Every structure is written in structure tokens, then in C-alpha cells.
Amino acid sequence: MTLYIDTEATDITNAAVVSVTDDTPVEELKQLVPGDSEPLTVQFTSNGAAPSWASSSSYVLTVALGFPTPAGIEDLASTSTFTLNGSTRTGSLALTGAQLINTLRLWLGNYPWRRTGIGMSLQVRIATPTGANITYAQLPVIVQAPVILITPAEESAQPTLDSTPTAGEQPSASGNLTVTPASQIHIETITPITGVAGTRAVIITAAGLQSGARVSVRFILPATDSIVFELRNLTVGGTLLETITSQADGFLPAALVNLWFDGTNFNRESLIQPASGQQT
Question: Within its chain, how far is the Cα of 91 from the centroid?
Fold first, then answer.
């Protein structure tokens, strides 16, 4: 992949241009395939010429492939190793890591209509000699599923957990609850068996989960006021991911919270409230 990056671009998602002397935006980047080691050639341009700093090794380039998440862009493959020749930097981006490959497997398994490719972001960033980081481009790129079987070298060191979707159900009269996902794609249903008002913590644990796991928690709510569920990350005192509160008029009979695991913590992906037809 050859990238010419316009450092004057106001839209960093459209900063890849035709050449150093032609700042016409490129319509689409080359698609990437996990399992490859993608050669990279990167040049920067400013008003039709290479900027003065482009030939200095004191300006360190990082190129990273990431997946947009509620917590930000997760770095699934990156490199800061480049050879500088004049103002041209050459290197390669290894698309062979378990985190990238497992994320692709999970998304293709969970969302089969995306098997023609998954949209990711390619970030191009310079670290200056003063310690400042400047992102000149964050480019949309399609990552295609490979046909040839790939096994990442570090996969054997990863926790092994079945990616077949699993489901669980537990009632809640009072007290805290713990959800322990049994696979990388898990849905848990919480069914209050009494209409007693109060607050319960629903703790989502991550034992054995790999980055990219999806956990959904479905709440079945009675027509009782102020039954409050606090969805907590990892522990009872963990980050509050979502609060679900029942209503006396029964307007909210159910709610579904979708979570995404980044390898360390759970992040709220969306809240679906069927009664109101809202998704946030």
C-alpha cells in the first residue's frame, strides 16, 4: 500500500491523495486481508511538496489499523518501524496478530451479512521531537476475510473460549447478580420474580474472554416503579455501564444492553428499548 498524506487536509478521513504534487483525494484505499504482511510506502505532502520535516528521522511515523468502538479506536495492528529514504518512509504492517484475526472471526460469525468485508480505520500519526502527536490521517479501509486458513502465531497463548453463541437466564428478587459469559458471544436474561422496588448491581465478569467478545443483557421488567438495575464492569464497584429502571405503567417491559469487551474492560455498545422503539 502506498500512501500520500496531505498534511493540510481539513478532513483526516479524506487525507490520502494521488501523489505529492496532486492533492486530489483517493477514492478508495487498497483493501487489506488478515494473514498478510502489507508493505507500506508513506510520503507526506503540503501544498504540492514534501514538508521540511518529512526527511527528518526525528519525526516518528506510526501506522495503525483499528476498529471503531464505543471506547475509541482499538489498535489491532500497528507499526512504527520504517526506513527513511529522503522524504519517503517504507515498512510493513503485519496483519497476523491474534487480536485482529479473532476480532474478524467474531464479527463475521455474529454479523454474517458483513462477510464481504468489515470497515476499519487506518491511522497515520507523527510523533514530533517535542513529544507532540499529530494525526494527519484516519482513513476508512475495508478488511476482507481471507480464504486461506490462518492461525496467528500467538493464538496458542490466548485464552480458549467457544465462540458459539450461548445464553443464560437468572431471576432477581433482591441482591446483586453476576453474569459469567460462557462464550465470546453471550446473552443473559434477567427476570425479576417480584415487584419489590430497590437497586441491584448486575456485574459482568470477563474470565477467559478475548478482546472483541460481545455480551448482551436482556431485562424483563414488571409494571412496578423503581426497580433499578445497575450494569457494572467486572466488579460491584466497577464502571457503571448502564442503568435500567422499571416503570409503574409498564411502558418499559424489557430492555437490551449490548456490551463490547476490549480485552480489559466492557464498554457499552447500545441500549435497545423495544417499548419506545429507541436505540441509543
Answer: 25
